[in-house]
Design goal:
Length: 309
């Protein structure tokens, strides 16, 4: 097999039907082989529902005839940087192909902004590859897991909090305001718009009964929220704390633990046996909280940074 397929650069929104289908098939194969989503959800949702039209940024396709052996996805981030994800066919020459895709993607990335290369399930080989292309380690995103249901002593030690399901037509603006205050300056989780929330709420997995919000008793919006997501195709089925946020006005009052426990209890009530979430390794307070609830590290997704050119 030719180890050097043609590299085709295109705007992601301009992929034709055949290219969209080939990319979707590549993502399916990679996800099945890894047991882990090959891309973050915004990009996955774009291709799953709308093909290229749902995915901003550029894409580099590694083509062998009509087949797509790999792809590099360049997407804008809320903080003005560009993020790069590389997906290769699990049955191919992954290392050489990934190197070729990264090299081409860095050439066509928007100038004047930092470039962040992400590696899912990161390991030493990813560190070496990133360094070879001028990237340095930037962020570690930890995936933590906990058996469900939670131990009774964990629940009993948690401050009670009244939660209710998110209501369409009532909660969008206040949720966005609360989330963006809680994640001010965060490259992925901050800067949501109501339109982005509506787009995310159209995903097939969304169950508003598991999108829990806590009203502020002083009438000033929300204390916070815990949005859960069930992954029915994992073995065992996992339930994710998808987005959790506490309004900074209530920082230090223990509501982060209360919301996490509320979300995990909701998941356990649906028969989910494993809870899961992601958190930045540098968020020591959150890591300590999650460990106190029984979470343990499963793996690390890692970001590498290359300065603007």
């Amino acid at each position: 097999m030719d180890p050097h397929p043609d590299l085709v650069v295109a705007e992601a929104s301009a992929l034709d039907d055949a290219q969209q289908a080939a990319v979707a098939d590549l993502l399916r194969r990679a996800g099945q082989a890894q047991g882990h989503p090959p891309l973050p959800e915004p990009q996955l949702l774009g291709f799953a529902r709308h093909g290229g039209s749902g995915a901003p940024g550029r894409i580099v396709l590694a083509r062998r005839g009509d087949d797509v052996a790999g792809a590099a996805f360049l997407s804008p981030a809320h903080d003005g940087s560009t993020v790069l994800h590389v997906v290769v066919d699990p049955g191919g020459d992954g290392d050489e192909l990934a190197n070729a895709l990264i090299a081409r993607a860095t050439e066509v990335a928007p100038p004047g902004a930092p470039l962040h290369l992400w590696a899912m399930l990161a390991g030493p080989a990813d560190d070496r590859r990133a360094a070879a292309h001028g990237f340095s380690k930037d962020r570690d995103l930890l995936q933590l897991r906990v058996p469900l249901p939670l131990a009774s002593d964990v629940v009993e030690a948690t401050r009670p909090l009244v939660v209710r399901p998110f209501e369409l037509g009532r909660d969008e603006e206040v949720w966005v305001e609360t989330n963006n205050r809680a994640f001010s300056g965060h490259p992925e989780q901050g800067g949501w718009t109501v339109e982005e929330l509506h787009e995310r709420l159209t995903a097939e997995w969304v169950d508003l009964d598991g999108f829990l919000v806590a009203d502020d008793p002083d009438g000033q919006g929300l204390i916070g929220s815990c949005w859960t997501k069930v992954h029915p195709t994992t073995n065992p089925v996992m339930g994710e704390i998808y987005v959790i946020a506490v309004d900074p006005r209530h920082k230090g009052e223990g509501w982060g633990r209360s919301l996490t426990v509320a979300g995990l209890q909701w998941l356990a009530g649906r028969g989910v046996l494993v809870g899961m979430l992601y958190t930045d390794a540098t968020n020591e307070a959150a890591v300590a909280l999650y460990h106190s609830l029984g979470f343990a590290l499963d793996h690390t997704d890692r970001s590498y940074r290359r300065p603007p050119r």
